[in-house]
Amino acid sequence: MKNANGRVLGVIGGMGPLATQLFYKMVIENTDASCDQDHIDMIILSHASMPDRTLAIEEARTDELVEKLGADARFLEESGVTCIAVPCNTTHVILPKLQEKVSIPIIDMIEETAKEAASHGVKKVGILATDGTIETGLYHAACEAQGIEAVSPPADVQAHVMHIIYDSVKSGEPLDMEDIRAIESWKAEVGCERCILGCTELPLVRESFKEPEKYIDAMLILARRAVEACGAPLTE
Predict the structure, then answer these.
(1) Positions marked catalytic
(2) pTM (whole model) above 0.85
């Protein structure tokens, strides 16, 4: 299974399943295609039983993640993919170790998102992500490398972010608009020009914000970079 240019995208998904479903949709919608054959070939591995990434980071036991995700990456490489996307922000803390497991490139969603923010002239950005992703400091480092000040929410607002991710999206429960209001109030208070949706569950609630265009969707950036990496044209 290969496109005319010989490129195939591999996806290590299932973290969580709804986020992977949305990522697939984003890849399709961001490919400038007029027929089936214009779309990129993909192999999607939905590893929903993967241990919780945030807990693994907090408990300093990421070796299991490296082993399981490394096996997934090798499986995809052996299956003929030419690049890999991992639509899970927290997992990026072990991305360098995963890259060592394969000879094909793994697209760095966090680095690409920081570059995207810089391309819009953003000078101060809020980071909305899991406790695990925040703890790694990956987004802060990537943004600072682009000359952008990155700030994360205080504990009370972070609790609202986690409530959205785990108690609304992952649990399939209705969104509590109080969570959205708390985030918007904090964003305005600290003067963030934009916020990065640094968890792949958060794009599922992006349209609930008053100004969704001011929330940079990391998974959308990953989808577009994946389309480019497979040699297909992007939609405008």
Answers:
(1) 88, 199
(2) yes
